[in-house]
Design brief:
With 358 residues, the chain is mainly beta. It has a single domain, classed as Methylamine Dehydrogenase, Chain H. Helix content is 7%, strand content 46%. The protein contains 1 helix and 28 strands. A hairpin with a 5-residue loop joins strand 20 and strand 21. It is globular, with a radius of gyration of 24 Å. The N terminus is likely disordered.
């Protein structure tokens, strides 16, 4: 009898120790889940049709996670400390050149907003209000303000990221899309597809400083690092407008070649090259900034639109909407080295060198 009692006491002690250990691990009596693995260098891709975010490990060029977001994720921007990703979500139905928009269903305004993805946790953690039909956005250098183009409303919305509320709006031209903070921070530029113009806004005063005429259907803006020059593509003009961004006047129209439909633009880290995606023209163009001539043309894939460049400047990733993949372009050889299947309708791309914020 005594040996049996001793055995019972020993089993109780073991159970008690195990329970205490589990409680210490989680603080609530359950074992903590394993930590989320975040790639040292990650490529994030918004999938407009699928409503989610593909996470690619840049070291292996493989999708390692898919994060659910909401309706129509398109534009995205990384916080300055690289811990958060802000994604424009829209309840407006998907249109396009071949769609009769009069037959589209009414917009779901409850779905409009900016999704906030925690990059350490690899999940959507918050929604911020941002006005109707947000499409593209940019962020202030300190991370305290988001600037959002509202295509359906013809306005630029200013969002306080800490307070999680709208703190201002500025009326701009019809169908605004591209939005970029000019280096220096006081001015935000917004393209108007309808007006064929780029609107330069004074953020502190919340007013338009000037509307600068550019080519037909401008879609984005890129600046030299010092903010002295801006490049604006004209999708329906097969050209770029080079603008004196200090005196706010056009300097030159750069011809990209017959049939080119320039969409997104970005300047290389050393200010020597301008990268241009061309949508239905399939090309990724490289323009030599010293000569303002096309230096290279790369067949990127099926309708490349959004793209991003790696931190070392050696690799460029394009989102190819109809084929549901990402092209990996080696910029030294100027060739596509791989295509990575992602979600449905990839639209925007962002590269984060360290997903854990280091």
């Amino acid at each position: 009898m005594r040996s049996k009692a001793v055995l019972v006491m020993c089993l109780a002690a073991v159970a008690s120790a195990a329970g205490s250990h589990g409680q210490a691990a989680s603080g609530r009596g359950t074992v903590s889940p394993p930590p989320v693995r975040v790639p040292a260098a990650a490529v994030y891709v918004t999938n407009e049709v699928g409503g989610d975010l593909s996470v690619i490990d840049a070291a292996t060029n493989a999708v390692v996670a898919t994060i659910s977001l909401g309706k129509r994720p398109r534009g995205l921007v990384v916080s300055p400390d690289r811990t958060l990703l802000y994604v424009a979500l829209s309840g407006s139905a998907i249109g396009g050149p071949t769609v009769d928009e009069s037959k589209l269903p009414p917009p779901d305004r409850k779905a409009d907003g900016i999704g906030v993805v925690n990059l350490r946790q690899q999940k959507l953690v918050r929604m911020l209000p941002a006005g109707p039909d947000p499409e593209q956005l940019d962020i202030s250098a300190d991370g305290h303000r988001l600037f959002v183009a509202n295509e359906d409303a013809g306005q630029l919305t200013i969002v306080d990221t800490s307070a999680g509320r709208i703190v201002g709006s500025i009326k701009v031209g019809g169908e605004p899309e591209g939005v970029t903070v000019q280096p220096g921070g006081a001015h935000v530029w917004v393209t108007s597809e309808q007006d064929g113009a780029v609107y330069v806004t004074d953020v502190p005063a919340q007013k338009v400083l000037k509307a600068i005429a550019v080519g037909p259907r401008p879609r984005s803006i890129a600046f030299l690092k010092d903010g002295s020059r801006a490049y604006v593509p004209a999708e329906n003009g097969a050209s770029l407008t080079l603008i004196d961004a200090i005196h706010l006047r056009p300097l030159q129209t750069i011809d990209l070649g017959k049939g080119m439909r320039p969409m997104r633009v970005a300047v290389s880290g050393d200010d020597s090259m301008l990268y241009v995606s061309t949508g239905r023209s399939r090309k990724l163009l490289i323009v030599d900034i010293a000569t303002n001539k096309v230096a290279a043309s790369i067949d990127a894939g099926d309708r490349p639109w959004g793209f991003a460049v790696s931190a070392d400047g050696g690799t460029l990733y394009t989102a190819n909407g109809p084929s549901n993949d990402i092209s990996v372009i080696d910029l030294s050889s100027r060739a596509v080295v791989k295509k990575i299947p992602v979600g449905r309708g990839p639209w925007g791309v962002a590269v984060v060198q360290s997903g854990n914020g280091r």
